[in-house]
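quick q for whoever's on today - can somebody do inverse folding on this one?? i tried earlier but teh output was garbage lol. tokens:
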């Protein structure tokens, strides 16, 4: 018996990289899986259905059940069809892992409108469409039956918290994903549906570009820290009955590490006896910011572990 026996999962962008690992892990736990993938390159160009089909074949060869869906996650109707495919093929829908996406990195002063629009579309609208259609199905079922088995899992990035000078589009999309997911956690709590966000690090087509590639290199021997398979056990656990009370959280996950992040914390409180004016704001905040480190001229991911 697998922990997800009888459950139906949709994993977007599951043709390769992290999505493939998540789909295989959910299938290993017993879920029947809709493998969504458009088969685009790391910059969103091109189209190839063979990767998604290969993951379906791999799950089946391991004794699992899977079906392919080759739609665009950010297309309203295609996204709806993804959930419908789950229901029509396997009789139900329970778990959504939104993962699909691509990058078009540029500094803020060089970024074109199309770079911004396309990355916001695939990540933020892609998550919105999936969560929208998934939550409609789960809410309707929850209203009819009381409680329902539902898990919404979203993929953000540490760029949402710590920013990245070369990814203004991607950082913004990933920050928005946390907001949408936590809102869904609140909207669906009464039906027993959970929603969580995780921020992975892994060696994939997305990270094997430019200077980033060396950071993710596979070691000649020993533990492979950036193997995408290191991320999927958290996904499988959050999708499982054991995580029924875990909702509205943000995780960072890679290698042998899992960090749980909380909402931004208060760094200071200032009150004024009268209405604020230019001078009183300066008097209150000036000293505080003098003692703070200024922003650095580079991309630094603070250590959270
Ligand atoms: N790899 C990392 O270190 C890392 C870090 C932070 C966040 N992420 C996030 O993890 C997720 C997976 O990325 P990855 O690293 O596995 O990249 P990847 O490029 O290997 O996989 C992305 C997959 O998404 C698919 N895809 C792209 N646009 C699509 C669309 N419109 N509809 C359906 N499928 C589409 C691609 O065909 C591809 O198979 C992404 O959301 C990414 O932003 C990755």
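ok took a stab at it. sequence:
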């Amino acid at each position: 018996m697998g922990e997800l026996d009888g459950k139906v999962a949709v994993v977007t962008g599951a043709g390769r990289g992290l999505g493939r690992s998540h789909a295989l892990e959910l299938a290993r736990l017993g879920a029947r899986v809709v493998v969504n993938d458009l088969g685009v390159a790391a910059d969103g160009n091109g189209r190839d259905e063979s990767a998604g089909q290969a993951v379906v074949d791999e799950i089946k060869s391991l004794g699992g059940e899977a079906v392919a869906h080759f739609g665009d996650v950010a297309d309203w109707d295609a996204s709806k069809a993804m959930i419908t495919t789950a229901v029509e093929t396997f009789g139900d829908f329970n778990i959504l892992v939104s993962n699909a996406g691509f990058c078009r990195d540029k500094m803020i002063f060089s970024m074109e409108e199309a770079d911004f629009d396309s990355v916001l579309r695939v990540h933020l609208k892609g998550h919105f469409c999936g969560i929208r259609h998934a939550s409609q199905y789960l809410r309707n079922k929850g209203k009819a039956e009381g409680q329902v088995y539902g898990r919404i899992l979203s993929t953000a990035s540490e760029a949402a918290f710590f920013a990245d000078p070369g990814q203004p589009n991607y950082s913004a999309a990933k920050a928005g994903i946390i907001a949408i997911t936590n809102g869904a956690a609140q909207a669906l709590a009464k039906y027993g549906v959970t929603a969580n966000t995780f921020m992975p690090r892994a060696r994939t087509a997305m990270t094997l570009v430019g200077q980033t590639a060396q950071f993710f290199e596979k070691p000649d021997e020993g533990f492979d820290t950036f193997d995408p398979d290191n991320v999927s056990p958290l996904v499988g656990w959050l999708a499982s009955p054991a995580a029924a009370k875990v909702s509205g959280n943000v995780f960072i996950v890679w290698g042998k590490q899992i960090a749980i992040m909380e909402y931004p914390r208060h760094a200071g409180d200032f009150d004024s006896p009268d209405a604020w004016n230019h001078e009183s704001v300066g008097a209150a905040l000036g000293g505080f910011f003098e003692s703070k480190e200024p922003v650095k001229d580079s991309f630094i991911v603070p250590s959270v572990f």
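fwiw Residues 8-261 form a domain with the Rossmann fold fold (CATH 3.40.50.720). also The two ends are 35 Å apart (CA to CA). so keep that in mind when u check it
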